[in-house]
Amino acid sequence: MRIRLNLLVLGVASLIVVSFVVPLGLMVRQQADQRGRLEAERTAQSLAAVVVRSAISGDDPTTNQLAELIGPIPQGSLILMPDGQTLGEQEPDRPLIQEVVSQRTALSSYNAGGFGLAIPVLIPGGTVVVYSSVTNGTLSEGVTSAWLLLTILGAGLIGAALLIADRLGRSVVGPSQRIAIAAGRLGDGDLGTRVEEVGPPELVSIATAFNVLADRIRELLAAEREDVADLSHRLRTPLTAVRLQAEGMEDTPERQAILQKIDGLSLAVSDLISEARKPAERDVGNCDVVAVVRSRAGFWKVLADEQNRDMVVDIGEQPGPVGSTIGQAGAAIDALIGNVFSHTDPGTGFEISANVRDSSVRIEVADGGAGFSNRFDPGRRGMSGADSSGLGLDIARRFATDAGGEMTIGASPHGGAVVVLTIPLDDAIPETTGL
């Protein structure tokens, strides 16, 4: 916008300057030409007056007499006597002089060398022609310097107009750029971003509306997080009751497994409450996602065996530290595997793989079900192809993007669905608590 405003002012200022400078330059050129012609006319008239005074005395004047009366002949002037003798070194315009002699009237004309004027003086012995001329340099004397000054003046006026326009554009564009930058920061999650309410009234109104919107977003997110924390806190009571019932069971391997899963669920609820109580900022953590996948695959293996699902696990031995917490990584893996159990029939096999490749970790969950429908859009939060909340893939996607990676979906080699998480490695030491 600022560049366009400057270009607009440049065009308008240039038109205005040209409309004044060009006529002024032409007028200067005309005045210089007129000044040169007047100089030639004055010189010719003064010489003709001398010839007339000499002729009045009686006898026809001679070149010697005229030379004594006039003295040095001015440069560019010539006196042509009737007998052909000349006084002066200027080469005359012969066609002009012949025409003056024949018509017996003063004539002037432009020629290749400049401008010439011839005046006839009648004497008893014939016609004396007084010729005076000026060069092209005299006709254009001062024009070049005048044009140069006019050009400098025009350039200065255009520069001043651009400077004023730039300062005006800065006063308009500056606040709008600050609003755009603040909007980008707010979109990146910086809820404390605010815009200084300065500038033109219209932009001040926009800045005020932006600040009100940012405050409202912060309030809504805080209320939502409080609601999540409250809901999670309510889950503790039934979990406690389930744990008490489990502790009353006989001490068998099944009881220990149930207690372990209840502890894991309680830990997940506690993490959810802790996350909800934090300020609305992106969590920063580090975990070995390969170890998380290995742990969650072991958890789901029991259910897969119960449903006669062929579960293929391909998990590498090389650690895969990524920029996320164990809770977030575990929730994402559980969401992907849980989708297989939710959206495919019992007995449908699936594969889980997690391997480090170059500088990233590739996690893949593929099944042999019906796959994704053509209308399915994984980018829409809450969208599902079955009777569910549709948040499973969104949890996995946010886990990947928050860790600097991405999620892609497609068709597996078995004809079902495949979800791939590609996450860059992190150099920090991964957490192991909670696996």
Layout of helices and strands, plus pairs?
Elements: H1 2-56, H2 63-70, E1 77-80, E2 86-87, H3 94-103, E3 107-110, E4 114-123, E5 126-135, H4 136-139, H5 143-187, H6 201-247, H7 253-277, E6 287-288, H8 289-306, E7 311-315, E8 321-322, H9 326-343, E9 350-357, E10 360-367, H10 392-402, E11 406-411, E12 417-424
Parallel strand pairs: 7-9
Antiparallel strand pairs: 1-2, 1-5, 3-4, 4-5, 6-8, 9-10, 10-12, 11-12
Describe the protein's architecture and organization.
The chain is of the alpha+beta class. It is built from ten helices and twelve strands. Helix 5 (143-187) packs parallel to helix 6 (201-247), helix 6 packs antiparallel against helix 7 and helix 8 packs parallel to helix 9. It is rod-shaped and about 160 Å long. It starts with a helix and ends in an 11-residue tail after the last strand. Residues 381-390 have low confidence and may be disordered.
Portion in strands = 15-25%
Largest sheet: number of strands, sense, barrel closure: 5 strands, antiparallel
What is the C-alpha radius of gyration, as a whole number of Å?
50 Å
What is the chains' assembly state? single chain
> Helix fraction?
55-70%
